[in-house]
Amino acid sequence: MSWIAEVHEDRAEGRLAECYARIRRALGRVLPFYRxxxxxxxxxxxxxxxxxxxxxxxxxxxxxxxxxxxxxSAENGCRH
Length: 80
What we know:
The chain is mainly α. The protein has one domain (9-75). 59% of the residues lie in helices and 0% in strands. It contains 4 helices and no strands. Helix 1 (14-27) packs parallel to helix 3.
């Protein structure tokens, strides 16, 4: 259980509901990680835009981007 007050998908309104719909289209459900952002729909929207831009087709393949992200996470000591 999170100590951050979260807004569940059933109660989301406005920008937050739009973000949740975007996440559901991409992942099939809203993960708890994204519900933690519900305190600031503006930041959730910015997060989704950023990762959309990073993941967009470009010079690097998707697999190469994933390898880089994994290496950076490992270097930073992330366990996920």
